[in-house]
Specification:
By secondary structure, this protein is mainly alpha-helical. The chain has helices at about 5-30, 35-65, 70-90, 95-120, 125, 135-155, 175-195, 205-230, 240-250, 260-285, 295-305, 315-345, 350-355, 360-365, 370-380, 395-455, 460-485, 505-520, 540-560, 615-625, and strands at about 525, 570-575, 580-585, 630-635, 635-645. A five-stranded mixed beta sheet has the order 1-2-3-5-4. α1 packs parallel to α3 (about 70-90) and α19 (about 540-560) runs antiparallel to α20.
């Protein structure tokens, strides 16, 4: 291709080509979802800077042109345009690093090879008479086929096509249609640089070139408006006339010096028609062309290549051959390169990364809307009371975040009220069930004493008096439990401080309560002598703690068929740091290891006839007094109980 080296025209053409790149950046960034805008813009930068640098380096190294002339610079910008087409087709699901590799490969191999065939004086397509004045085939068909191969290899965006219903295609919202429309107008203006940079002394002047270029864009845009309004009488698709006008201006680049004004309008309309046909064909075969870049440039470029033969029948076969060859080479080279590259590295992000957006996953640059959506998504999975979305003042997203935080606050207040109501009901339920549980041990002791009296086991007067005193003590303890439950002292009112009790004496009472059951089951209960500090709990509370533990041991022995009917229970005490430490051990079946500390949860039991309230009640009593109970070992059973001293 010969380029007119008139300085002013050259400067204007280069400026327009640079403006074309800005138009691509705005059009693509405004058309993708907000979470991918920066990534799309970054790829456009890569197309321009990396693509042009790679092409010029190739020119210097392999063509021996140490000095970069006007023709080489124009070709480098044409190359950048061809590469930018692919960034639109694979938007929102192509990693930046493999995309850079594709840019370098295309700028170093694919585009220079095709450009040499079509435009170099010794190129075989050029020698056959193939004509492409401003790159309808060399730039746009090449870029369209590179984009098509990349889109097919990387696959569609997640959720674009229904996996079960053919023909169901999801539409994704654009981040900013105003920016896209502005970018479209910049592309139309920038495309003037394509044609003016390709003018030669034999061609019509700049004025005629400008007129036919804009007429083709107008023809395509007008066709797009008519098509959009006829498709839906109530909703006008703004993007359709935009892309149709781009298809029209792409189509005129091949034959702009050879057509008049009317023919230019017709070529623009034909380019838009070709774009529509290719776009529908791609959807039919489930190829996701994110920004319709393939249909615009491949469809419009093919029309532009064939339009050279407008009125010249013998030229048509040459133009058709050149278009098919260029498209096949560009598609084949790109598909093979990406297929091989994909064997060694991932081309696209994971589904989770794609959902987060490439702005965040590829560049660590989240948008305010994405950050808000991430916070809302986390809240939908797990509600954390008190957590709020970040508010960026004086922004639309910030106002949405404020509204969302207000809703969270109302929900939290309502939830807290309901939780408190449920907790009160549950506490009342546990209160009365614990009462029944704690009454069981004194009743069993009374039953044992009554049985001994009935059988005449106790005959001496002193023993009878002792048994009567024991019965009186048990009845008093039962009345105390009932009074406490009825007044709600155990659950709702602060615990009253106790003057303290002697631990050894409390253990003796426990042994007396269970003596009948111990004898029946041939169980041994022993506890070490301890006359040290007085523990800061009432005697009734200490008795309840050890009664629950001993009752659990005896009941587990009774339910376990593998035991031989005997058990040894021992309690060892020691003084440590203002606490009396008791080690409760038994040789029975114990507690399964997988249960562990869960035994202290209400209603969790390891026995067939258990309620799961005894150990929960023990821990609550001890912690209210400043002590605690922990499970040291389940098999063999070993509890460590700490009682605070007075």
């Amino acid at each position: 291709m010969r380029v007119l080296h008139e300085p002013t025209l050259f400067f204007l053409s280069i400026a327009l080509l640079l403006l074309l790149q800005a138009g691509f950046l705005l059009f693509e960034s405004g058309s993708v979802r907000e979470r991918n805008t920066f990534n799309t813009a970054a790829k456009n930068f890569c197309d321009f800077f990396v693509g042009t640098a790679t092409y010029l380096l190739f020119t210097v190294l392999f063509r021996g042109k140490v000095e970069i002339g006007p023709g080489s610079l124009v070709m480098a910008l044409f190359c950048a345009t061809a590469l930018t087409i692919a960034s639109g087709a694979v938007a929102e699901r192509f990693r930046i690093r493999p995309y850079l590799s594709l840019v370098i490969f295309s700028a170093a191999v694919t585009f220079p090879l095709i450009e040499n065939w079509a435009w170099a004086s010794e190129g075989w397509l050029n020698l056959m008479g193939f004509v492409d004045r401003a790159g309808a085939v060399v730039v746009h068909v090449t870029g369209g086929c590179v984009a098509l191969a990349a889109a097919m290899v990387v696959g569609p965006r997640t959720g674009r096509f229904s996996p079960t219903q053919r023909g169901v295609v999801a539409s994704f919202p654009s981040s900013n249609l105003v920016v896209s429309c502005f970018g479209c107008l910049l592309i139309v203006v920038g495309m003037l640089g394509f044609n003016t940079a390709s003018l030669t002394a034999e061609d019509p002047g700049v004025m005629a070139c400008t007129i036919v270029t804009l007429l083709a864009a107008l023809g395509g845009g007008a066709f797009g408006i008519v098509l959009s309004m006829s498709h839906s009488p109530t909703v006008t698709d703004v993007m359709r006339p935009c892309v149709c006008s781009l298809a029209g201006v792409v189509a005129i680049t091949g034959a702009f010096p050879f057509v008049n004004d009317v023919e230019a309008i017709c070529i623009g309309i034909l380019g838009a028609v070709a774009h529509e046909l290719v776009s529908r064909l791609l959807l039919r075969f489930r190829v996701d062309d994110a920004l319709q870049a393939v249909s615009v440039h491949l469809g419009g470029g093919a029309v532009g290549g064939l339009a050279v033969a407008w009125g010249v029948q013998e030229q048509l076969l040459v133009q058709l051959l050149g278009t098919v060859v260029v498209g096949s080479v560009a598609f084949g080279f790109t598909y093979l390169f990406l297929w091989v590259y994909g064997k060694f590295s991932l081309l696209r992000p994971t589904v989770a990364e794609e959902e987060l957006g490439l702005n965040l996953s590829e560049h660590n640059s989240p948008s305010l809307a994405d950050e808000l959506m991430t916070t809302m998504r986390q809240h939908s999975q797990k509600v954390v009371l008190g957590q709020r979305a970040r508010v960026e003042p004086h922004t639309t997203v910030g106002r949405i975040a404020e509204t969302y935080n207000g809703l969270l606050q109302e929900m939290e207040a309502s939830l807290t009220e309901k939780v408190e109501s449920i907790r009160e009901r549950d506490q009342s339920k546990i209160l009365y069930e614990s009462l029944l549980h704690d009454l069981r041990n004194p009743l069993q002791s009374l039953a044992g004493q009554a049985f001994q009296l009935e059988q005449g086991v106790v005959k001496e007067a002193a023993a009878v008096r002792s048994a009567g005193s024991f019965v009186e003590t048990q009845v008093r303890q039962m009345n105390t439990l009932i009074d406490a439950a009825l007044s709600g002292l155990r659950m709702k009112l602060p615990r009253q401080e106790s003057p303290g009790c002697d631990l050894h004496r409390a253990l003796q009472k426990v042994e007396a309560m269970f003596q009948f059951r111990l004898d029946q089951m041939h169980a041994v209960f022993s506890h070490s002598e301890f006359t040290g500090e007085t523990v800061r709990m009432s005697e009734a509370e200490v008795v309840r703690v050890f009664s629950n533990l001993l009752d659990n041991s005896l009941q587990a022995l009774k339910e376990n068929s593998q035991q031989k009917g005997s058990i040894a229970v021992s309690i060892e005490t020691q003084l440590s740091r203002n606490c009396v430490i008791c080690h409760y051990r038994d040789s029975g079946p114990g507690i399964p290891a997988e249960v562990g500390e869960q035994v202290f949860e209400a209603y969790l039991t390891t026995k067939r006839n258990g309620t799961g309230l005894g150990l929960a009640s023990c821990r609550r009593l001890l912690r209210e007094a400043g002590g605690d109970i922990v499970l040291v070992s389940g098999e063999p059973l070993h509890f460590q109980i700490s009682f605070p001293v007075v």
